[in-house]
Amino acid sequence: MRTEQVPTGLAFRDMTIEVKEAESNAIETTGSKLIKLATAIPNALKSKRPSEYKRIVEGVSGTVCPGETLLIIGAAGSGCSSLMKVLAGRYNPKEVVVSGDLSYSDINCSQDNKVFLPPTEIAARIGFCYEGDNHIPELTVKQTLDFIGSLFLPQRAGKKGSAEQEIYKVAKRQGQRDLTPQVLRDLGILHVADTPVGDDLIRGVSGGQKKRVTFAEVMIKFPALAFFDGY
């Protein structure tokens, strides 16, 4: 059972990203409060963004057509991960301000030079692989992907107890039995399917194999658009 996704293109222009800086743990005094107030009043009069926002990406543009791969390269701290998270819609708009133009195929997610989160129907089709490898160490590689697949596939089809639901349950089980080995085979880790993922305390797969398990967790959903941070 394979869920086909319509390939999605991506275009962004003059994108600027500002993030809210972490609050200081220093104890405020009357003097520090007066300084903050004196800074806030001129900013408000000039309609400027408060100084607690830091610009980390400015004027970046790019295009990815369906079937293409775009490599984003930059030095540590240059904002590559932040840019990818914004493009994938993985950010909190209360803490991140994005300006410019952004569109997914024929769906525009910007207006008046302001960028908004993608709609639900687009966000559900976007896969994002974070840099870290966070897994349940006791589960085997196959169990890990079976679990992800069971969350991704619809839980039911038709009314509960109906013939359609029973047929779907059988088809879903068969589809999962076929899907997981195929993804593992494509990534070259089928031979460790029954090996625990492991961690520092539980012996499991190697670091490179664990990275491919993380990769597989995204690919088993067959996303229309996928982002891989740190790969």
Topology:
Blueprint: E1 10-20, H1 30-45, E2 53-64, H2 80-87, E3 96-104, E4 107-108, E5 110-111, E6 114-115, H3 120-123, E7 126-129, H4 141-152, H5 163-186, H6 207-219, E8 225-228
Parallel strand pairs: 7-8
Antiparallel strand pairs: 1-2, 1-3, 3-4, 5-6
What do you see in this structure?
- This protein has 231 residues and is of the alpha+beta class.
- 33% of the residues lie in helices and 20% in strands.
- It has 6 helices and 8 strands; from the N terminus they run βαβαββββαβαααβ.
- It has a 4-stranded antiparallel beta sheet with strand order 2-1-3-4, with helices on one face. A two-stranded antiparallel sheet has the order 5-6. Strands 7-8 form a two-stranded parallel sheet.
- β3 and β4 form a beta hairpin.
- α4 packs across α5.
- The longest helix is centred in the C-terminal third of the chain and has 24 residues.
- The protein is globular, with a radius of gyration of 22 Å.
- The mean pLDDT is 83.
